[in-house]
Design goal:
Layout: E1 5-9, H1 18-23, E2 28-31, H2 38-52, E3 58-62, H3 65-71, E4 75-78, H4 85-91, E5 96-101, H5 104-113, E6 117-120, H6 137-144, E7 150-153, H7 158-166, E8 171-174, H8 176-179, H9 184-195
Parallel strand pairs: 1-2, 1-8, 2-3, 3-4, 4-5, 5-6, 6-7, 7-8
């Protein structure tokens, strides 16, 4: 099942809040820590798993199939420059495989390669990742919906999450809407309510 709220987690975030976030209804966590050495990334992934698995949340690792397998995570999320989706599916047939997509055509390609969901965006402007293309807007979500479950990402807030869901997204992925909020757990509860 594709999560309704994916929270991206790095080594800079307050890991002591993970259990509370999962209890608040965040049902997916993506470990994304691009600068960590492999051993540290495995350890971070295991810490996330320990904190959120009791709540039944899904845990995927960004970019790194090897780390997902070593840490016994639920899956991997792959970008355009990462291991191809078809190779990840062949190497780890039991894992959830997500793919970053920026158009309906890319979603179709990801589906044909065996992806389970598409991370789609950026929908709105975001300060969480540099070098992204221009925000695509709600219309792009509607256009891309219906091929794979879509997880919309990029500038999503509790205020816009319901709109994104109404446009056809299965769920949303967030960083700043939780981690840069003064009350991360309260913000998570608002997001969960908005996408219910």
């Amino acid at each position: 099942m594709t999560p309704h709220v994916f929270c991206l987690v790095s080594e800079r975030d307050d890991l002591s809040l993970l259990h509370a976030l999962a209890d608040a209804g965040v049902d997916g966590f993506q470990v994304r820590a691009k600068t960590l050495a492999t051993g540290a990334l495995v350890a971070l992934t295991r810490a996330v798993l320990t904190a959120v698995r009791p709540s039944g949340a899904l845990v995927v690792v960004n970019d790194r199939l090897d780390v997902a397998l070593a840490a016994e995570a639920d899956g991997v999320h792959l970008g355009a420059d990462d291991l191809p989706v078809a190779d990840a599916r062949r190497l780890a047939p039991g894992l959830v495989v997500g793919a970053t997509c920026r158009s309906r055509a890319e979603v179709v390609t990801a589906a044909e390669a065996g992806a389970d969901y598409a991370g789609f965006g950026p929908v709105f402007a975001t300060a969480s990742k540099a070098g992204l293309p221009a925000p695509q807007g709600i219309g792009a979500v509607s256009e891309a919906a219906g091929v794979l479950p879509l997880v919309a990402i990029g500038g999503i807030t509790a205020e816009t999450a319901a709109e994104v869901r109404a446009a056809g997204a299965t769920g949303v992925a967030v960083i700043g809407a939780i981690w840069r909020h003064p009350d991360p757990v309260g913000a998570a509860k608002e997001l969960v309510a908005a996408v219910a």
